[in-house]
Structure prediction request, 151 residues.
Amino acid sequence: MGQKVAELEGAYTAVEEEDKKGSRPKTGLLVASMGSFERAWKTAVDKLKAREEAEHLVAVAGLGLSQQETVDAARELSQADLPMVGDLITAEGFDATGAVDGKGAINGLVRVALSNNDQLTAISTYSAATASMAFLRRPLWWKPPTRRSSS
Prediction:
């Protein structure tokens, strides 16, 4: 819950700061949620589309998890000509190309996070340059597998 509150505070602060500049038209914030694990994506998208004209909705920000529900939401928002910004999306091809599922372009989608491949390339480049300092740490809950006796 704390993360959601911080995200809302950040979005609200950004809107307030922009409005203080005297920008026109004034920016508003309409909050929507696709629910836990994006299971309510269809309801959220339908509600956004229904309010598009009345609320002067011009874009959707904050598309998150790289999973099929988010892809489906992005495709439907794209069909409604609503531009989107994906903040946590990292799956390969989950961008405007739509290569993530091979169903064509997702027009209007902008991804701001690096793809998984780009992140791994950066890590491997850094690790190669600093090989003496690179290591992987196993999680605290990890236990080695038990070996079966050969009797």
Q: What stands out?
A: The helical segments are 2-20, 41-51, 68-79, 116-129. Residues 2-20 form the longest helix (19 residues). The chain has four helices and three strands.
